[in-house]
Amino acid sequence: MGTIARVARFGLLGRTLLAGVPVAVATALTTPALARIESFPAGFRTQMVQTNGTRLHVRVGGKGPGVVLLHGFGDTGDMWAPLAKVLVKDHTVIVPDLRGMGLSAHPDTGYTKKNQAVDIAGVMDALKVQAADLVTHDIGNMVGYALAAQYPARITRWVVIDAPLPGIGDWDNIIRSPVLWHFNFRGPDVERLVKGRERIYLDRFWNELSADPKKIDEETRSHYAKLYARPHAMHDAFEQFGAFSQDAIDNKALLAQGGKITMPVFAIGAEKSFGAAMADDLRFVATNVTGGIVPNSGHWIMEENPQATVKLVAEFLAK
Predict the structure, then answer these.
(1) Theoretical Cys-Cys bridge with 166: which of 40, 73, 111, 248, CB 3.0 to 4.6 Å?
(2) Whole-number percent of the chain with pLDDT over 70
(3) Is 0.70 surpassed by the pTM of this model?
(4) What is the pLDDT of residue 182?
């Protein structure tokens, strides 16, 4: 499915590819190799960080200015290993698993993105990092906006990748798309249906939201399916979606109270997913937005074209 067709499915067709808007594209990397789960570089350590009433599993490595990498649904912080290998050369790289996801703790409450932003600020406090760059994908974008809006002095630059923000821009149209039925697919009976069938559920996302499902290999699928089959993991993933209504209210309030964020924002869309519409969406909440596109990729940018994604992010953060 082409870019325009896929973006139309998300209700963003009317704002796609605005004339005259500069967009960075990793054009040299048009034939990405098959991605596999990679390990973080030697020298990275993992620790459980107490923050905001919960405990987050955090990977930390390198020296220099801080950069925080936030994952989304269907992934964990493991997705960022290829990017961490590049950034660790001159950054302190901080990679948490979000509340209730990956190897982090599973509290019963607290899944609004405004509250999870407090989680991440607490991680930065624990690591004595006053300010950092921020790189986010999917649900990580939503936590990222709440972080940048609540703590603008602590986020120096933000790379936001291929997912909208609740309550912002075309959100009301986006959530009507049949592609996003899973936003309301939750509850005790749903959890019973998915229990033991996590791989079937996750395959739907990898297959339908990718440009080429073959780019997400068996090793990758098995790795994440096992993590999402851990006790309470799917329940908490559903809680992430269940908080979207409150997230929309919170985001509108953050924008009304604080105005648009002013730090440089690099809004990257996947060619076969949000494309240039990512930058359009971020302009509702940020004043200094440039756009980029990951070529030959659907939503799963680090699985489908990690080389291009790493190139775009690293070049922006090096400016």
Answers:
(1) 248
(2) 89
(3) yes
(4) 78
